[in-house]
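dumping these here so i dont lose them again. two proteins, back to back, each one seq then structure tokens. dont judge the mess
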Amino acid sequence: MDENSSRYIDAFNDIEKWLRTQIADSNRFDLPALIDTVADSHFAVRRHAAKLKDLNRFRNFVVHDFSRSKALAVPTKMAADVISAIRNDLLSPEPLLSLAAKPVATCRPDEPIRVAVEKMREGLFSQIPVCEAKTCLGLLTAGTIARWLSVDLAANGGLVEEKTIAEVLGHQEDSDNHEFLPRVATADDGLAAFDRFLQRGMRLEAILITENGLATEGILGIITVHDVPRLNHNSTM
């Protein structure tokens, strides 16, 4: 068997073994059905499902041909690279924290809004977590600031930079604009979170990474909606 065929079959066998560890009684499923079943609860498998089925059909030709000592179907280097990359994505996924911005700039709810605005301007970002000690109380966005500013100027006029961040945060259109994920989360976990919000017709502004995915643990890293193309790039074969 040539090198590309060996790499291709080894990688696919690794994937199938891993898939069968993901559900109980997996031996009753053929591979296409197994892929569909695991994909129901696993975002990365769902993303690769169609390609895996196509590559499995080709694998059957490769395996059967070699069992008869005939090389009627031989994978190219590209095919071996593709299935190897999918194996790595499923079995050794990219940690989400490695792609996150860190350390994370935060602000306190009792600070004047100008503090948050200055940090956002200096850091060139449009979201900033509002934290009291290690507990995250919410995510302040440029959109919320703009909404509050239009209301405050219309009602009161005058200087606004000393108003507290807590007051501004109360003008959020939707406080459910962020999600907490644990340190062990993968890039695909991040993509799945953005996808869940999209399926609900909502916009996930940021993922905040903490040790165990709790709001009270201190923020280790942040992934914003603007990072989605980069997450897709790291998870695309």
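---- next one ----
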Amino acid sequence: MKLIYINQKSHLPKYKQIVLSIENSIMDKVLKINDKLPSINKIKIENNLSRDTVLQAYNELKKRGIIYSILGKGYFVKSNIGFSQQRFIVIFDELNYFKENLFYSFLETIDNKAQVDIFFHHFNVEVFEKLIEENNGNYSKYIVMPSNFKRVNQVISKLPKEDTYILDQINEELFDCYGIYQNFEKDIFIALELGKNLIDKYQKLILVFPNSKEPLGMKIGFISFCEKYNKPFEVIYSNVNDFKKNNFETNLRPLKIAVGELYIIPNDRDLVEIIEKSKNQNLKIGTDVGIISYNDTSLKKIVENGITTISTDFHKMGHLLAKMILNKEKTLIENESNLIVRNSV
């Protein structure tokens, strides 16, 4: 049975591919304690590698206590590799209430079966690329939140495909990857359809789009809904400079609150501003103006007698991802989203 798999097109160094192949064989119980490994010369010839490359892989496995050698006899498996010896890297865009909920749900389900290290790229593509390059080959699983970076597949393809999982935002380049994602375009469209009876009392719908960090699918789904149901609409931006920098179209209209308008607000800073402006103008939320926020929190249940939200289940997302890894499932799952109706509409 072939134990070593080398992908000549992979960016992962070949000695690390040997290490991963042997680790996976032990994890899958193809190799057991004291089983003999293929000789250095056998791996070298079968995979067209240098002797030094194979020796480097075996020395790393020896150093980590996974294999041992007997002079004149060869290399043998020393220990089983359980999840407790596995190392996962999680690369998030930022840490906020929702991502923290997701992460702790993931840790809870992993249940100390692996060491989990978390890093943040803060929507900086250079930091993102550096985190991928510097950590490639150092972990057994890679959990990546790629934001909406352009050509992101070129960066992620450097990681071992079988051990890489995508979280949250996704684009057509990544549909052959594994992981859990949100369908932002579909989610906002369906949510607005579900609340259409309440929405119809407003004369105009306004999407307050924060900046280029947000998924563009939100804007596409919002516009599709408004056009389908012939609703007057507008998209305004709360960070115009960011959109200019990234060559996005901009609407320079200041954020003013008017009677008969419904505001869909992905960013909580904008939510606070709109609530404040409504109160300053003595406008009643849910009657004079409407608000639909993104991502549910306990606070939104009580602020202004309840803020309506469009929200995925971040706890479920973390749990599903951990189960996917523990069960060695190779699939791509769309995490469901819901409209939670409260008094703000």
